[in-house]
Write a structure and sequence with these properties.
The protein is an alpha+beta fold and 106 residues long. Helices cover 29% and strands 29% of the residues. It has one domain: 2-Layer Sandwich (TATA-Binding Protein). A hairpin with a 3-residue loop joins strand 4 and strand 5. The longest helix has 11 residues.
Length: 106
């Protein structure tokens, strides 16, 4: 089973709802009011938490006990495609990123 999680930091000036933000980010649009993410620090934390990983330009593939994830990012968000991760590994992923997880609309 695979699903997508998106992470961003909405500032006080963000006017869109989470589903609208996810849609805009999925379409490759910038969203006014989102706070820039410390992407390097987030990716470094993921690599530390998931020591079995492979990094390519703009892509981090991490492996859990079972399953894997593929993380991509911009300065506004981190998008993670999760493939069959155990619930504990999925929770560790979310905690490591340190932002609320959002699922893009269907």
């Amino acid at each position: 089973m695979s699903d997508i999680l998106m992470f961003w930091n909405a500032g006080p000036q963000t006017a869109l709802s989470p589903p609208e933000i996810a849609r805009e980010l999925t379409w490759g649009e910038e969203v006014p009011g989102l706070v820039d993410l410390p992407v390097k620090e987030i990716i470094d934390r993921l690599k530390e938490a998931f020591t079995e990983h492979e990094e390519r330009a703009g892509l981090l593939i991490g492996r859990g006990g079972i399953g894997r994830f593929e993380a991509t990012w911009t300065w506004q968000h981190v998008r993670v495609e999760v493939h069959d991760l155990l619930p504990a590994d999925r929770e560790r992923l979310i905690e490591t990123i340190g932002l609320p997880a959002h699922e893009p609309p269907g």
